[in-house]
Design a protein that fits this description.
binds (~{Z})-2-methylbut-2-enedioic acid, binds iron/sulfur cluster, EC 2.5.1.72, alpha/beta, four-stranded parallel β-sheet, Quinolinate_synth_A_type1, about 325 residues, about 45% helix, metal-binding
Length: about 325
């Protein structure tokens, strides 16, 4: 509508005026992803967002995603101004892994290599030996296991269990989960599959093991998009945030994409198939992040001591991924 068009026009002007670029996650709303594309920004998973932000010449990055993504951008690019549509957009994995408790867990097992998912605070990253995202986690754990390393894994227990099963690595697990992926239900998925027997099931490994066990392809957001593109099936049942349908449909035009079933019904379930924190990244909030003179409600800062420490395991991941 007209108001949305106004916001888009304003945002486009402000991006140019402020030498800023919009970096959006696959789980943000389709109009936000479209705007990032139109304005020369990036739409991707958290690994690619980190790399794009670091390498882009703009002075300012607007990170449409959740807080850990803004923090990662600041850790990698301290000289840039990192703005977020809202600083309230967090993640249940980050919230469920407070630094004091996690650090005590690590201290209790000093002979273990600490591997943390990118969905964590800067302080948790600073305590880790490795940071991983879901698109590189399997390879990095495989590598560590081949060197005989014992691993502490945090915070996603479902992703951790999946990786332990795939690699046979010895992993001590932090018990966190993603409130979105944890809602996918195997029984309902079995019913749906019987209605669409020709459909391939695509699952993000933050989902419960019973759902992962039914998958034809398991992977990160970017890997699931590739699967929809490359697999011969005409129909896909997709167990991850519905925001992914925007890019998945572009990659696989003409194919039918169906949302995997969740436990709750739409009226009561606030986290079914769409992350409530990703959903906070609206046009109005993006416009505000660029135009507000009061930057304290939008700008990301990371304590310099933590930043320097967190940069080490993050750089290890980026170098490994090359
Ligand atoms: O669930 C998330 O937040 C994901 C998949 C992040 C990422 O790695 O892109
Ligand atoms: Fe965190 Fe899950 Fe939201 Fe991703 S989808 S940001 S893991 S709560």
């Amino acid at each position: 509508d007209a108001q949305k068009a106004d916001y888009k026009t304003r945002i486009k002007q402000l991006l140019i005026e402020k030498d800023a670029v919009l970096v959006a996650h696959y789980y943000t709303d389709p109009e936000i992803q479209a705007l990032a594309e139109e304005t020369g920004g990036c739409v991707s998973d958290s690994l690619e967002m980190a790399r794009f932000g670091r390498d882009h010449p703009a002075k300012t990055l607007i990170v449409a995603g959740v807080k850990f993504m803004g923090e990662t951008a600041k850790i990698l690019s301290p000289e840039k101004t990192i703005l977020m549509p809202t600083l309230e957009a967090t993640c249940s994995l980050d919230l469920g892994c407070p630094i004091d408790k996690f650090s005590a867990f690590c201290d209790a097992h000093p002979d273990h290599t600490v591997v943390v998912y990118a969905n964590t605070s800067a302080a948790v990253k600073a305590r880790a030996d490795w940071v991983v995202t879901s698109s590189i986690a399997l390879e990095i754990v495989e590598h560590l296991d081949s060197e005989g390393k014992k691993i502490i894994w945090g915070p996603d227990r479902h992703l951790g269990s999946y990786i332990a099963k795939q690699t046979g690595a010895e992993m001590l697990m932090w018990q966190g989960d993603c409130i979105v992926h944890d809602e996918f239900k195997a029984n309902a998925l079995r019913d749906m599959k019987s209605v669409y027997p020709d459909a391939a099931i695509l699952v993000h490994p933050e989902s419960p093991a019973s759902v992962v066990a039914m998958a034809d392809a398991v992977g990160s957001t970017s890997q699931l998009i590739k699967a929809a593109q490359n697999m011969p099936n005409e129909r896909f049942i997709v167990a991850t945030d519905r925001g992914i349908f925007y890019k998945m449909q572009q990659a696989a035009p003409g194919k039918t994409l169906i949302e995997a079933p969740t436990g709750g019904n739409g009226a009561t379930c606030k986290s079914c198939a769409h992350c409530p924190w990703m959903a906070m990244n609206g046009l109005k909030a993006i416009e505000a992040s660029l135009s507000d003179s009061d930057k304290t409600t939008h700008e990301i800062f990371v304590d310099e001591d933590l930043r320097v420490k967190a940069l080490i395991p993050l750089t290890r991941m980026l170098d490994f991924a090359k």
